[in-house]
Amino acid sequence: MRKTIKFLLIAIGLLFFLVACESKPKQTEFSSPSIKTQEDKVNVDEKIKIGFSMDTLLEERWLKDRELFKQSVEALGADVEIMAAKGDDAVQIAQAETLINQGVDLLVIVPHNAEATAAIVSKAHLAGIKVIAYDRLVKNANIDLYVSFDNEKVGELQAEAITNLVPKGKYVYIGGAETDYNAHLFKKGVFNVLQPLINKGDISVVYDQWTKDWTPANAYENMLAALRANNNQIDAVIAANDATAGGVIRALAAQGLLGKIPVAGQDADLAAAQRIVEGTQTMTVYKPIKALSEEAANLAVKLAKGEEITTTHTMNNGKIEVPSLLLLPIAVDQSNINETIIADGFHSKEEIYQNVKN
């Protein structure tokens, strides 16, 4: 009997132990939540997606930039979404917000207004998206990278070419859009060369005006005003790009001065190259856009992957020293147009010389 009771007590105790174990909550292992970094985001996506916010496609060169950048990004196995704002600040900001909300891995900007687009950089950074300024610098913003040409050098090349032809005389400077930081860099480069000659009294700048929105029509009106103010007594003109140079040349033609006054531009637009071989524009500055687009695409994809970028230059944008990659521009005139623009396939010989009779 005692053995039976002892056995029953042991069995009851064991039963209570098993019930207690069963009712005790099971311990579950939890990993601490991790913050999703940009690199983590890229690793789980099928493809990197780059957003490209452009100021405009109304000028020939920006059409080339769009296509070449798209090709370069896709060649690296990434996707690109491109939006152009037609020169409207509010539209560009809205389009950039759309790209950010779409979850692009990196944003590339060609700013219309160097200061207004600082808001885009702030919005992108709040979303954990890095930003590259393409060809034009964004002012007063913590931009992550700037990829362009040495735009101060562009202006120096223009002024050097014209002062070699006209070491003394009355000069007109037709600038670009005042809202474009590059326009200020071009002008700075021009006056780096002109100022010593001004100080010596060899030349005088008798007209100096910005061109709203870079439009040839506004440049035309500026040049007409310069001619009227000086009774057509002008010896040389430096225009901030080839589009504005086109407006200048149209104004000169209207006054019977076509081909009689040296005119400098830059961008190597097809129309400018044609004017150079025809003798109505003196020179342009060629900026190999293919090299620019390839470098920008390569750096964009690397940054999107979280890879570190090292640069040898910086540009002050009013807030920080922006890490910068600056490519070298090339002065082009009749003497080297075949070895530069044509040899690179930027424009064909047939296109450039189509209006020149053999």
Automatic annotation (TrEMBL):
Domain Periplasmic binding protein: 50-308
PANTHER family found in the cross-reference section: D-XYLOSE-BINDING PERIPLASMIC PROTEIN
Keywords: Signal
Record gene name: xylF
Cellular localisation: Cell envelope
Superkingdom, natural source: Bacteria
Pfam families the record matches: Peripla_BP_4
CDD domains the record matches: PBP1_ABC_xylose_binding
Key word Transport present: no
Organism in which the protein naturally occurs: Bacillus suaedaesalsae
Protein name as it appears in the record: D-xylose ABC transporter substrate-binding protein
Database matches in InterPro entries: Bact_Solute-Bind_Prot2, Peripla_BP_I, SBP_2_dom, XylF
